[in-house]
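Lecture notes, continued. The same structure-token format from the folding unit now serves as the input rather than the output. Read the line below as a description of shape only.
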């Protein structure tokens, strides 16, 4: 039996599954990063984004529904790798001044992955005529971009400075 040629719709659903899995991994990683962070500002930023991430999972479930598919995740090796690097930072820089700078860098790698994925999903939803999905994906994309900007501000504002204390 000949297999059906795969289309953009198949790719859209596969990528939704990838991001759904990734967001759930991020939900588990953010509290650990908040706990590890020294800076109160950074802790608060991680905790705030954990709350937003719950909304991202919820929106993805809605997008699955719009696409007529059950919400299901599919192992995303990219996010596993990024989260693994974050764990290594916590282990290798546990009590060091540079810990927060490393956590921030890991968190921004996560955001950039999400921004890439949501940008693609939004473009594909547009192409597929899934107007409601476009709006949901765009809301999440905007939150990821805003979070990335906040992280950049924290880095330049204080975190990077305290990572390199001046010699007495
Ligand atoms: Fe997210
Ligand atoms: Fe995010």
């Amino acid at each position: 039996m000949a297999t059906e040629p795969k289309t953009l719709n198949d790719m859209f659903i596969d990528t939704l599954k990838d991001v759904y899995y990734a967001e759930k991994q991020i939900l588990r990683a953010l509290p650990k990063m908040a706990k590890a962070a020294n800076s109160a500002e950074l802790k608060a930023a991680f905790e705030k984004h954990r709350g937003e991430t719950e909304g991202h999972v919820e929106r993805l479930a809605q997008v699955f529904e719009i696409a007529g598919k059950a919400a299901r995740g599919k192992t995303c090796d990219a996010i596993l790798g990024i989260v693994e690097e974050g764990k290594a930072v916590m282990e290798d820089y546990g009590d060091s001044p540079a810990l927060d700078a490393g956590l921030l860098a890991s968190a921004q790698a996560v955001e950039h992955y999400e921004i890439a994925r949501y940008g693609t999903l939004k473009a594909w939803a547009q192409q597929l005529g899934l107007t409601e999905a476009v709006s949901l994906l765009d809301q999440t994309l905007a939150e990821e971009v805003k979070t990335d900007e906040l992280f950049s501000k924290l880095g330049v504002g204080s975190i990077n400075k305290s990572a390199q204390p001046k010699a007495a």
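Point for the exam: The first helix runs from residue 8 to 36.
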